[in-house]
Write a structure and sequence with these properties.
It is built from nine helices and no strands. Helix 2 packs across helix 4, helix 4 runs antiparallel to helix 5 and helix 7 packs across helix 8. Helices cover 69% and strands 0% of the residues. It has one domain. The chain is mainly alpha-helical. The longest helix has 26 residues.
């Protein structure tokens, strides 16, 4: 570390949004999704849930217009950092981590598009959930997950942006 960096440390712009990212992960790890909703409690299932909750939050932040863009970007960067760290922790090598993270970002983008369309009524939400949580083979519990997603989406829509930014995720 150079002396200039020690004298003038960079301010991490993402730091104010870490509580929100932590709240997103906590919601994604809520046992009801797995026990009552039938989401597989696997590495893939946990990724799918973090991507789902993050997508709902990013969709909510879109409603803030220009003022929601920077927080959305910084929140997505926190997601990338987390996924990078998780991949390294499970033993994915440096050479391919970037490719995996790229695929995860592509998956997140596709899910945002699918969930946005479903929540606007342009497509069935159950189909989007089946495709993204159960890889096309939805269990009978898809109705539980669909109801919970709709309630979380509504709660996020009713919550003040400042509360969301502070990491106070509403309960579905």
């Amino acid at each position: 570390m150079s002396i200039l960096r020690r004298l003038f440390p960079e301010r991490d712009q993402r730091a104010p949004y870490r509580p929100l990212y932590d709240a997103i992960v906590a919601e994604a790890r809520t046992p009801a999704w797995y026990l009552d909703g039938g989401v597989p409690d696997t590495v893939d299932g946990r990724f799918d849930m973090v991507a789902l909750v993050l997508a709902l939050v990013l969709i909510r932040l879109e409603a803030e217009g220009d003022s929601g863009r920077l927080p959305s970007t910084l929140l997505t960067e926190l997601f990338v950092d987390d996924m990078d760290g998780q991949l390294r922790q499970i033993g994915v090598g440096d050479v391919v981590v970037g490719k995996h993270v790229g695929r995860m970002m592509s998956a997140l983008g596709g899910r945002i598009t699918a969930y946005r369309a479903a929540l606007l009524g342009d497509a069935p939400l159950g189909d989007a959930l089946a495709r993204n949580l159960w890889r096309g083979d939805a269990p009978a519990t898809v109705d539980f997950a669909e109801d919970r997603v709709r309630r979380l989406h509504a709660a996020l829509g009713a919550a003040a942006a400042d509360a969301i930014y502070a990491g106070r995720m509403p309960k579905p």
